[in-house]
Design a protein that fits this description.
- There is one protein chain.
- By secondary structure, the protein is α+β, with helices and mostly antiparallel strands.
- It has one domain.
- It has four helices and four strands.
- Strand 3 and strand 4 form a beta hairpin.
- The longest helix is centred in the first third of the chain and has 10 residues, at 8-17.
- It is globular.
Length: 82
């Protein structure tokens, strides 16, 4: 399985919004087979088991949205620093 790039921002947001884990464990959680397949299919988000959405851009996991926020609202979330 090819390694997927997980940004530092995504790690920070995962830690804040999902669970406080070491970086390596967060990278593993955000680079499962589901993420690789989503990148292959050009999908913009993967729903985590917690219900949070991890947003992908250009083959990288770039952020984790607050629980209940849909990826189509990601620009609104970014503008309001949620």
């Amino acid at each position: 399985m090819p390694e997927l790039f997980v940004t530092d921002h995504a790690i920070q947001r995962y830690r804040e919004r999902v669970r406080d884990l070491p970086d390596v464990e967060i990278r593993c959680a955000l680079s499962t087979r589901a993420f690789v397949k989503a990148a292959d299919l050009g999908r913009c988000a993967v729903i985590l088991p917690t219900g949070h959405r991890a947003v992908m851009r250009a083959g990288a996991v770039v952020t984790v949205l607050p629980h209940g926020v849909h990826a189509i609202f990601a620009s609104h979330v970014r503008e309001n620093n949620l």
